[in-house]
Amino acid sequence: MMVLSKCPEDVELCHKFIAPGQKDRLEHMLKNNFLIISYTEAVEILKQASQNFTFTPEWGADLRTEHEKYLVKHCGNIPVFVINYPLTLKPFYMRDNEDGPQHTVAAVDLLVPGVGELFGGGLREERYHFLEERLARYLDLRRFGSVPHGGFGMGFERYLQCILGVDNIKDVIPFPRFPHSCLL
Q: Which GO terms fall under biological process for this protein (predicted)?
């Protein structure tokens, strides 16, 4: 990992004063192969858990941070790729897996220890007839208007959380955001 090789003093300082004991967690994570499970397998693991969750896991519902962190612990505190999410949870342009009644798309999230989701991605639909059908549904949602909105999915702060072992994402934000700091 480039950060560890190029900035070892900075990482060591953080592990010594801000997040003691996290260096071993990071080394454990990097020494092991990442696991791959389907969204369906993830939900089954969560349903069988003895832990009580604030949000009850069920197929078709989005995974919450509490679910993501549990899955990582359940899998041995190593990074876990969760693949094949329900179509209804992902944007209209994700590639359809054509897998019958479950109707999943070729999407992936990487879950890491101490953070949960580090990043997400997926294949884009290239088949015209699928896009045409989904785009019609999307346009129907906007028939009566919408509000200006946007998003940010880089995951840089979560990446820093992961390698530095910092629990609170607010402690790794290089450009803190606060009310009225981003005028649209």
A: tRNA aminoacylation for protein translation
Both structure tokens of 104: 């999943």
CA distance 184 to 181: 10
Angstrom distances, CA of residue 134 to CA of 77, 88, 90, 143: 37, 11, 12, 14
Paired tokens of 109: 């999230």
Cβ atoms 37, 179 nearer than 8 A: no
Q: Whose CA is closest to 62, among 100, 109, 103, 122?
A: 109
DSSP 61: S
Residues listed for the chain: 184
Q: Are 155 and 119 in contact (CB under 8 A)?
A: yes
3-state helix, strand, coil in the chain (%, to 5): 40, 15, 40
Decide if 156 contacts 13 (C-beta within 8 A).
no
Condensed to tens digits (0 to 9), the pLDDT of residues 69-94 reads 999 999 999 999 999 999 999 988 88
Question: Minimal CA–CA distance to 120: which of 109, 104, 106, 105?
Answer: 109
Q: Which two tokens stand for residue 112?
A: 């890491």
Among candidates 110, 106, 102, 120, which has minimal Cα distance to 81?
110
